[in-house]
Automatic annotation (TrEMBL):
Pfam families: RHH_8. This is Arc/MetJ-type ribon-helix-helix transcriptional regulator. One of its GO terms (biological process) is regulation of DNA-templated transcription. Transmembrane segments: none annotated. PANTHER family: BLL4998 PROTEIN (PTHR36215).
Length: 141
């Protein structure tokens, strides 16, 4: 039997959202629809978002311990062209490690990104121009 697809958007800190797609079997989807019809949730997304938040709350301590242990930036980290030019001028290189959203400004050139970024590890979303993502492809884990 074919799975139905439900879309939902999560809201990381910083106000932006990322759309994800999940596949659910017809029985699960039917139960969700029943709960929506009965007024427990306003729509499918509301139920799915609530379920995800409940699971994240359940595992909050593990997340916090892992963020500390792995030295991840939690939330939003943005790099402007000026930030990366300052890194280059200081003869330094960045290791970007983020749980949330990491973004590189649209005016950052692939050459500047390559000269200043050693590696990128993002659990969540990574926003950068297609050219910068292509240039950093071998450094993104």
């Amino acid at each position: 039997m074919e799975n139905s697809t439900a879309n939902l958007a999560t809201r990381p800190k910083g106000g932006e959202s990322e759309k994800i797609t999940i596949n659910l079997g017809p029985v699960d989807l039917g139960q969700i629809d029943l709960l929506v019809q009965e007024g427990f949730y306003s729509n499918r997304t509301d139920l799915i978002r609530t379920a995800i938040r409940n699971q994240l709350a359940l595992h909050a301590q593990v997340v916090q311990e892992t963020v500390s242990r792995r030295a991840l930036v939690l939330g939003l980290q943005h790099f402007s062209r000026e930030d990366l030019e300052a890194v280059r001028a200081a003869h330094q290189r960045l290791t970007i490690q983020v749980l949330g959203l990491a973004s590189i400004a649209a005016d950052v050139t692939p050459e500047l990104a390559l000269a200043t970024i050693d590696s990128v590890v993002v659990l969540g979303a990574f926003h950068a121009s297609a050219a910068v993502k292509t240039a950093l492809a071998g450094r993104i884990r």
